[in-house]
Amino acid sequence: MGHTPQVVLDTNVLYSGLRSRRGASFTLLSLLGSDRFEIHLSVPLVLEYEEVLRDRKHDLELTETDITDAIDYLCRIGRHHEIHFLWRPRLKDPDDEMILELAVEAGCDCIVTYNKDDFPG
Fold first, then answer.
1. How far is it, in rounded angstroms, from Cα 16 to Cα 3?
2. Cα gap 31→16, rounded to integer Å
3. I want to staple 108 with a disulfide (CB 3.0 to 4.6 A). Which of 6, 11, 52, 86 is the partner?
4. The whole model's pTM is what?
């Protein structure tokens, strides 16, 4: 078997995939835990996932238990990293710095995001 792509999922992709069963985000989420790609996580990113999902749970039609289960699943299947350096400021949006730092620390192949302003290409 070849190289398994290593990725960081931006929060907007997680939200989008949970909001609609149509589109690329849902397809990516449905492939989590398979050998198609491996996700990488950091504490700040997981906390952001949790904050956004809880703040928008009514839009997502999710319960607190659903959100907890989703976060627990991501933490179970993802590769965890501690970030020991800060490259700030590199991006227009300081909240996106943690995504870049995680991708660099983990040696990821790509960042999966809808944020083309901070992550072109």
1. 27
2. 15
3. 6
4. 0.89
